[in-house]
Design goal:
The structure is a single chain. The chain is mainly alpha-helical. The chain folds into 2 domains: 44 residues; 55 residues, Orthogonal Bundle (Arc Repressor Mutant, subunit A), CATH 1.10.10. 74% of the residues lie in helices and 0% in strands. Helix 2 packs across helix 3, helix 4 crosses helix 7 and helix 5 packs across helix 6. The chain is elongated, with a radius of gyration of 15 Å. The termini are far apart. The relative contact order is 0.11.
């Protein structure tokens, strides 16, 4: 699989980050089997599709947290979390601080 196809996959994920991107939908868009896309994506990116989507959701959420006054619950739901608590757990696990701390620190600068 070419670097251009991997780039297309990554771009597709970002474009669909708030629409529950799935491996199957991405594979249909790319035109390869989901198994082949999964193995090639993992080899090229160094993490599974699911791990990558989770990290991208949180990265996009940081932008919303720091650049808007949108409620944290609304941001959590926007990026596919079932609750603010689930969002906070994932956020803390990834970054070591809560979304609320992130927002508070962003507005101090």
């Amino acid at each position: 699989m070419s670097a251009k196809v991997i780039e297309t996959m990554v771009n597709w994920i970002d474009e669909n980050i708030t629409n529950d991107p799935t491996l199957e939908r991405m594979a249909d868009f790319i035109g390869y089997s989901h198994y082949y896309c999964s193995s090639q994506f993992h080899e090229a990116v160094g993490m599974t599709f699911k791990q990558y989507v989770s990290e991208r959701r949180l990265t996009h959420a940081i932008t919303d947290i720091t650049q808007s006054r949108e409620k944290l619950l609304d941001i959590a739901v926007k990026y596919g979390y079932s609750s603010q608590a689930a969002f906070t757990r994932a956020f803390v696990s990834n970054f070591g601080y809560t979304p609320n701390q992130c927002r508070r620190d962003a507005y101090r600068m």
